[in-house]
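Record type: monomer structure entry
Structure origin: computed from sequence
Chain ID: A
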Amino acid sequence: MAQEIPATHPDEERLARGVLEIARQLAAELHPNTPALGRLDVDASIERDLGLDSLARAELAQRIQRTLSIATPETALAEAETVRELAHALAHAPAIVGPPLASEETAGAAPEAAASAPPSPATLLDALEWHAAEHPQAGYVLFVDREDAPEHLTYGALRRQAIGVATGLMHRGVRPGETVALMLPTGPAFFAAFFGALYAQAIPVPLYPPARPSQIESHLRRVAAILSNCEARVLLTFHGVLRIAGLLRGLDTRLELTTTPDEIAVEPEVFRPPVMVPGDTAFLQYTSGSTGQPKGVVLTHANLMANISSMQRVTGVTSEDRFVSWLPLYHDMGLIGACFGALVAGFPLVLMSPFTFLSRPVRWLRAIHRHQATITAAPNFAFELCLHKIDDEELAGLDLGSLRLTFSGAEAVSASTLDRFAERFGRYGLRRESLMPVYGLAECSLGLTFPPVGRGPLIDRISRDELLLRGIARPADPADPSPLRVVSCGAALPGHSIRIVDERGTALPERTQGRIEFRGPSATSGYFRNPGETAKLFDGDWLDTGDLGYLAGGELYVTGRAKDVIIRGGHNIHPQELEEAIAQLPGIRKGGVAVFPATDRRSGTERVIVLAETREEDPDVRAKMISTINQLAVDLIGVPVDEVVLAPPRTVLKTSSGKIRRTACRDAYEHGRLGTAARSPWLQLTRLSLQAWRGRASRALRRSAAMLWGVWALLVSACLALVLFVAVAVTPGHVRRRRLVGAFVRTALRICGIRLEIDGPQFLLARRPCVFVANHASYLDGPLLAAVLPPDVAFVAKRELVTSILLGRLLTRLGCVFVERYDVQEATTGARQMQARLSAGESLVAFPEGTFQRDPGLLPFHMGAFAAAAQAGAAVVPIAIRGTRDMLPDGARLPRPAALHVIAGEPLLPNDGSWRAAVELRRRAREHVLAHAHEPDLEWGTPRIVPGRRKSPVVKS
C-alpha cells in the first residue's frame, strides 16, 4: 500500500516534476513509441505506469544524482511507489549541488480542450474518455421509445457501465483480441456492452436480434454461422434470447457463455483504460448478405475515424446539430453514422428502436419535430412507408423545417420516392434541398460518396435502351416517353477515390456502366477469417463494391448489383426499377416484390421470374395482376417476364436491414420452396434442439478425450519426475545432470505424443557465452527449454524457489543462478552474479518477465539479464515459446493437448557495456518474442494488441 505523504511544499512539487521528466526519459528508452508517457503526472506508479523494474530504479537513482545532484536514499528507491513519494524522500535527502529544475513551462501543461467535441480522437475510446472527463453529466443518447418516459444516457454513466461490463468479461476469461458477440435491442445495454468489449480489449460483433417466430430457425442458423466464423465464446444478449441460447451453443459454435450485460458487470476496485492504437480492430461489421452468406468486415479505429471525419467535413456537421434515428444498431448506418458520429462530433443523439418506427412511422417524424432535429437518415423503404402508412390526420401540427440533412442510403435510392416524399412532406416544412442520396458500404466503414449540402437530389434522365443494350448512360431525349431516372449519390469523400471498370479491370470513361471500385483510408483490410472472399474483394489496391454504376460530372450514379443483373436476349435487365413499378400496383405489397433469373434446364438460358406478395385470393383478380405485371415488364425492360409467382405475404426473403435477397429467392424457387408454409415455431425449435444436442454430445466426447489424455500425461510426468529426482541426486557434475533432465523431458514428450517444432535450431548453438531469454507462460517453459538447449546452459531462477523442498534442491543441483526480482540492491547483485558467470565462459537462460499469469500477454522485461550480457560482452539469443500456456495454464490441474513451438532468433550483440546498449538488447529481444509468441503486449500492465496483428485478422486460418 502506498505510504501516506503530507501535502507538498511548492519547491517539493517542482522537484517532483523534475524527477518525473528524468523518469519519463528513462521509460521512453525502455518503452519507445508509447504515447501514454506524456500524459503521466507525478502520481504515476514507478513500476506500473513508468515500467521501471528494480535494475531500472538503480539507473534512475544514478540519473537523478547526475542531473539534480541529489543522492537517492536506498530505502526510498526500494519503497517509493509513485514519483511523488520518491520526490518527497529526495526533498529530505542531502544535496550535492543544486542546478535548476525543469521549469513549469517545460513540465508539460495539458492542452486546452475543445468546448464539446474531442480534439482529433484516434480511437472510439479516446472520444468517450474525453467526453467522460470533460462533461460526464452531458447527455450522449436520449432513448424515446416511450414518449412519456424518455431515458438519458450520459457520457459518465456510459463509461461507468462499460467498465463494469469490461471487468466482468475479463473475470470470465475474455482475452485481448477475442470477439464478443452482441445481440441486443436499441437501448443503454447495447452501448454498455459494445464499449465494455472495447475496454476489455475484445472485438465487439453486433448481431441482429430475432424478429418473427416464424423465421426463428433460419435466423438462428444464420447467427450460428456468424458465431462460428468469428469464434465468439461470449454472447451478451437480453433475457428473451437466453431461453434459446443453448441451441446456439450446440450449432457448431465455440459459444460458452450467454448472459446479459447487467449480469456480467462487475464493479472494479481500480480500472486503467487500455492503451489502444488506431490500427486496432474496433469491431466486426457482418454484411447483410443480400447476395450471399454474411461476411465479417474488419474495421479498425483508423478506418472509422477517417470515415466519420470525412463525412463531417463534407456535411459541415458540428456539435450544434441534432440527430434523430431509428436505424438498428447492428447496421453500419445506425451504428457508425448516428452513434459514433455523435460521439466524435459531440452532437446530441435521439434514438428509437426500429420496431417503434415500423409499428408507427409517424413516431419518427414526430421525434424530428419535437427535438428540432437537423439530421436524420433512412433507407428508401422508410420513406415509402411514410408515404403509405401515415394518414394526414396524424401529421397535424408537424414541422420538419429544422432538417438540413436527410440522408437516403443503405439500399437503392428511387427518384420517384424522393419526388413524392418531398412533395407530400414539403407541406410540413421539409425542404427538398435537405434530401441527400448517399452511397456507401460496410467495406468502406459506412460512407463513400456524398452530394453537395443544400443542392437536393440530382436526377439523371437517360435512354433506357442505350443502358440495357450497350451499357451507355446517354441522356434521354426530351420527348422520350419512358426514360430511366437514376439518382446521383454525389462525389467521393475527401481522401477517397472511385472508378468504374469493366470485367477486365480496365477503367471506363464517363457515362459508361461498369463495376464500382474504390480505395481510401476508410477501406477494410478484408473479411475476418475468410481469405477467399478477401482475395475476391481486392483488385490491386482497389476494392470491388459488387455494384454497377457510372460517373457523370464526377458524381456516382448506381444502377444495381452486379450479381442481380439478368441477361436476356441481349438485354442487361436491372431488377430494381421493375420491382419498384410492380410494387405500386393495387393489391401488391410494398417492398414485397423480387425479380430474379432462373436457369432453364432444357435450353440453358436465363428466365426472368417475378415474385410478388399479395393477399388477393380471387382467381380472376390474380390473373389480371399477372397480365398487368407482364405489360409493365414489356414497357420497362422491352421483354415479357417468363413467370409471375403470386405468393402470400413474407414470402420474399430479405436481409436484416430489409434488402431483398434475390439469390436466396432464386434458390427457393428452383427447389420448389417458394410460397410453402413455414414450419411452426415449436417444430423449428425442435429441429434445432436435436441438432444442438448432437453438437453438445460431440463436444462432451472431445472434452472427455482431452481429460483422459491429461490424466495419462500427468501420470507419465509424475513417474518420470520421481526417477529424475533420484538420478539427479546421484549423478555428478552440473552438465551431466542437465543432460539427464533434457533426456527425461524429451522422453516424456514422445510418450505423451506431444508435437514439438523448433524454428532456428542453429541459433540455439550460438557462440558461447551467451544469454538465452524467453517468454514465460507456464510451468512447462523451464522443462521445455531444458529439452532443446545444450546442457552447458545454466538457468536463472527467482530466489523464492530456493525455499521449495524438492524443486529448490533440484535447481541447486543443476547449478542455477538465483536472483532477487524486487529488491533494488539484491537485483544489482544478481546482475553481477550473471555477469560473473558469463565472464567465466558459462551461458545462461533467463525468463526476463520474472513470472507468469493465467491470462495471455507478454509482461515487461526486467533489465538484469540484458545488463549482465552488455557488461560481459555476451550475445543475447531471444526465444519465443508458443503452446505451453494452452497446454498447462496457471492454476490448471491437468494438462491439455496442444502443439509446442520454440522459435529462436538470431544472436544480438551489444555495442558496448553501457546501460543504453543493455536497453537496446532488451528492446530487440522483446520485439522478436512479441512478434512470434502470438500474445498481446502487456508492457504497461493493460492489454494492448501489437499493431499489425489485429489490423489484418483476415489471415487467420
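Annotation 1: The domain at 567-678 is CATH 3.30.300.30 (GMP Synthetase; Chain A, domain 3).
Annotation 2: Residues 681-730 form the longest helix (50 residues).
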